[in-house]
Specification:
alpha/beta, D-Maltodextrin-Binding Protein, domain 2, 6-stranded mixed β-sheet, 5-stranded mixed β-sheet, 15 strands, about 40% helix, Phosphonate ABC transporter substrate-binding protein, signal, PhnD
């Protein structure tokens, strides 16, 4: 074989090998790792995701584990460092993660109407005890406030923007003491137990919360409500191999009958498709303070 022919063969072989290697760059984890942002004070509630985990295992033919997450930030970091493949994020934490370069995309969200287009909405609300008689943000100046988490949408990001716009001051300057409860339910408890005068939380948790055997909403007063916020997205790593992503889509959109325990617990009808475009406004506003 001539040197030229040999050289051409070497070039074609290298190109073919490089192309095959590129096709194998995608992630095909032996165990799929799922994480959920903390929302409730009793994190044993994560057991309610068993139906989703079991259906994913069946469709993917591999183990699926729920990764414990003590904070919103822990879920975001897991998506950054590749230790989490699939997660439910708050819309604000999704916008923050994308802005910082996480290679993830939103694809599904729980909804009360299965034939809906795009995510449902909820609101950030500022709550106080009903018997405190507080009617406005002005009265709370210098008071103790509970937030949920620095990257919670309704319990962190949106309140900072809102307080700055309503008062012209940073949230920590307007309130006397600001603490992070770690979940929406714990922030509500802090108000009801008198540890803080007010809290910013998701209105869905106010509606669904229970205090001393009664609806928490009966003992709370809402003095401010945000504009609608798109509901929490489920996201996955863009780098997952196409067959893995297709299997995840089948679970979320074609096997919803198997997920009824999850839907009943979350008071939703099922999953609807979402995309980055549904969260563009939050992506644009997240840095306002």
């Amino acid at each position: 074989m001539s040197k030229i022919a040999f050289g051409l063969c070497a070039v074609f072989l290298f190109a073919a090998t490089a192309g095959a290697a590129q096709e194998q760059v995608c992630s095909n984890p032996a165990t799929l790792r799922l994480a959920i942002i903390p929302q409730m004070k009793d994190q044993t509630a994560v057991g309610r995701y068993d139906a989703l985990i079991e259906t994913l295992q069946d469709e993917l033919d591999r183990n699926v584990v729920l990764v414990p997450a003590g904070s919103y930030g822990a879920v975001i970091e897991g998506l950054f460092d590749g230790s989490i493949d699939l997660a439910e994020l708050g819309p604000g934490s999704y916008a923050l993660a994308r802005d910082r370069g996480a290679n993830i995309t939103a694809f599904a969200s729980l909804h009360k109407q299965i034939d809906a287009s795009g995510p449902s909405n909820y609101h950030s609300v500022l709550i106080t005890r009903k018997d405190a008689g507080i009617q406005s943000l002005d009265v709370l100046r210098g008071s103790a406030l509970s937030l949920v988490d620095p990257v919670s949408t309704s319990g962190g990001i949106v309140p900072r923007v809102a307080v700055r716009r309503m008062t012209g001051m940073h949230l920590e300057t307007w309130f006397g003491r600001v603490s992070f409860a770690g979940s929406h339910d714990l922030a509500i408890d802090a108000v009801l137990n008198g540890r803080v005068a007010a809290a910013f939380v998701a209105d869905t948790r106010v509606k669904e919360g229970v205090y001393n055997g009664r609806p928490a909403a009966d003992a709370l007063h809402i003095i401010w409500r945000s504009d609608p916020i798109p509901a929490d997205p489920f996201v996955y790593q863009v780098g997952l191999c196409e067959p893995v992503r297709q299997a995840i889509h089948r679970v979320f959109f074609e096997r919803q009958d198997d997920l009824q325990p999850l839907f009943a617990w979350r008071d939703r009808q099922g999953f609807v498709p979402v995309s980055d475009s549904d969260y563009q406004l939050l992506m644009a506003e997240k840095g306002v303070d």
